[in-house]
Amino acid sequence: MIIPGVTLLGNLPKPVRLFARYYVAVGLAITGYLHVDLFLNHGYRYIPNIGTAFQWQAAASFAMALLIAFGAPQPWGLFAAGFLASDLGGFVLSRTVGLFGFTETGFNPAPQALITVLVEGSALLMTLPAAFIWLPKLPLGRRNRPATAEGRL
Fold first, then answer.
1. Number of structural domains, the chain?
2. Which of 53, 63, 79, 99 satisfies CB 3.0 to 4.6 Å to 93 for a cystine?
3. What is the model's pLDDT at position 75?
4. What pTM, to 2 d.p., does this model score?
């Protein structure tokens, strides 16, 4: 849904909007690359469920990076925010209670784990203005409903 008059980052100057768009796109591409590297070169492909999740994460990262870099419509900023937040959540779970029976400690493998957290965290921060500007303008739950004899449905 496109809301007239609402852009991805509101009424910020165009250079600021472009910087944020490309920053998020590059961040998504970097995190996709790091997941491919861990999958191909560090044995993550042999970990049940995690290997498959890394493949899907990398594919989704590259797809979203391209879409956002080339001017995807408004919802993609929100999709990227949710994607990055869930990716960081998976990282935290894998370091605490485990994820699909898989647990790691600290920032291993180094340096990929630290780079991933820094890149995803900063890209997530860049997507937050889109969420705060765009989400309140969504007409969620406010659809016009036909009136009945007793009043509104």
1. 1
2. 99
3. 75
4. 0.77
